[in-house]
Amino acid sequence: MGVPDEKIFPHATAAAAETVAKHQEPQELFCPFVQRSWIALEEKGIPYQYKEVNPYKKEAHFLAINPKGLVPAVEYKGKALYESLILNEFFEEAYPGYKPLLPKNPEDRAIARIWLDHQSKTFIPAFHRLLSAQEPQAQDAARQELYESLRKYMKQVQGPYFFGEEFTLVDVAIAPWTVRDYVLAENRGYKRGDVGEGWKEYAERLASRDTVKRTESLREHLDVIYGRYLRDEAQSEAAKAIRAGRVIP
Ligand SMILES: N[C@@H](CCC(=O)N[C@@H](CS)C(=O)NCC(=O)O)C(=O)O
């Protein structure tokens, strides 16, 4: 039997309801790094509580979880953890009873990490450079750089996924960009088919995977943030790093 207090009207009303309504808009839906860790959680079936923060509003409670002020971040047993790839490996280690997303043998695990590193060092910076490049020459150079990174990557993909039938963290980590590369196709002359090496088919396969679709938000919201990148107006840490020729944090 419930307690009498359960019968109280449980919703905010009047001005308070308006305030609540203003804070319903998902804030980090645009973030491919968040989607990486979200896909991993969904793939593994780990129980979690999803909390939204606006990463551009560096509030104290957010900085306490990630002093770098970036999403994704996780609070686990009172400890603050962050960095999408590190979180994804943490899920593997902290939840061994759940579906594995890394191969069993150490050499394949090392190979997985080599190609995750490749994504971080070549693919993501090239994607950002192409997004924010204003001059046609700079766009051409960034587009070639992106294609080159993807060609190297695709030579390693066994198909249908990176390690064959097994869907692993390597696929998880690149999947969010397969639901975002339409921005480059519509604005920067990028074509999946021009990469060759099966990138188009692989990208379509990742983008249509259930856990990727379940963690995907509306394009109209993505368009707002990407508009800022396309005009090179974005003030995110990544945008500032690319502009200054620094490594993306
Ligand atoms: N290396 C980080 C990158 C995370 C990141 O850049 N997140 C963006 C959103 S997509 C962010 O929090 N930006 C806030 C800012 O730049 O101020 C990771 O892999 O988790």
TrEMBL record:
Residues 21-99 form the GST N-terminal domain. InterPro entries: Glutathione-S-Trfase_C-like, Glutathione-S-Trfase_C_sf, Glutathione_S-Trfase, Glutathione_S-Trfase_N, GST_Omega/HSP26, Thioredoxin-like_sf. One of its GO terms (cellular component) is cytoplasm. It comes from the Eukaryota. Pfam families: GST_C_2, GST_N_2. Gene3D superfamilies: 1.20.1050.10, Glutaredoxin (3.40.30.10). Residues 105-242 form the GST C-terminal domain. This is GST N-terminal domain-containing protein. SUPFAM superfamilies: GST C-terminal domain-like, Thioredoxin-like. Coiled coil: none annotated.
